Amino acid sequence: MRKPIIAGNWKMFKTRDEALQFVYNINMKLPSKSLVESVICAQAPILRDLVKRQGDNLRVGAQNMHYLDSGAYTGEVSVLLLEDIGVEYVVIGHSERRAYYNETDSSVNKKVHQAFRYGLTPILCVGESLEIRETEKTNEFIKVQVVNALKGLGTEQIKELVLAYEPIWAIGTGKTATAEMANDTIKAIREVVRDLFDEETAESVRIQYGGSVKPANIEELLSMSDIDGALVGGASLDPASFLELVNAAVK
Ligand code: PGA
Question: What is the pLDDT of residues 175-208, one digit of tens each?
Fold first, then answer.
């Protein structure tokens, strides 16, 4: 059985006060981490404060990091620092980073290795554009992303990893992939993992769906055979909505 994981991706939202208020609000209300993993991925400067105040059932993640330990890379964040302050997850290869900050399959792969080197769990994002979806090249395209991102990893790492399938055209647009569409692509991703590794690894790896997930559609998405959770932007900003999403994963 794969444990569901709901991760909020706050992107470039929330002041310190707003972030702490959110955490105080949900800490006592979150379901047990033995039933669902609840993660908040926030901007780097607030991560230490969130780790200090996270309740037993909340985990904290970063939204990006560099693939090297240290160096002359102005503005970048090192995994050493993330690990040092108690951050446990890191989003890698989000489509916004691929589109605006030149994130490539190769840098994504290096970052995944770097995260594992320091014991962080990568939430590795893949997803196609509308053009690719409309020309029916989705599975082909995603296969390349997955194969490149997972290069050099072992089965134990794959079992720890979280994959997030996020069709770009569904992010922040209010357009969700239908549950069937999301499940079909996630199945195809699991196939790629099966081809690269083995049956057991493919059945163990957790694959989230992301893209306009909200309380109104989460239950249907999570009822599908291969969807193991959600990576949620907009609907993770409000504490009541985040709690609804997490609770839906317990049922
Ligand atoms: P959204 O964002 O839920 O606002 O569509 C999802 C994401 O980018 O991770």
Answer: 878 999 999 999 999 999 999 999 999 999 999 9
The per-residue DSSP string of 169-192 comes to GGTTSS-PPPHHHHHHHHHHHHHH
Domain 5-248 fold: TIM Barrel (3.20.20)
pTM for the whole structure: 0.97
Give the closest residue (by CA) to ligand 1 atom 1: 233
Element (H, E) at 221: helix 215-222
What ligand 1 atom has the least distance to the C-alpha of 171?
Answer: 5
- Which ligand 1 atom is at minimum distance from the Cα of 95? 8
Q: Distance (Å, rounded) from C-alpha 237 to C-alpha 18?
A: 10
d(CA 251, CA 247): 7
The owner of tokens 């993992």 is 193
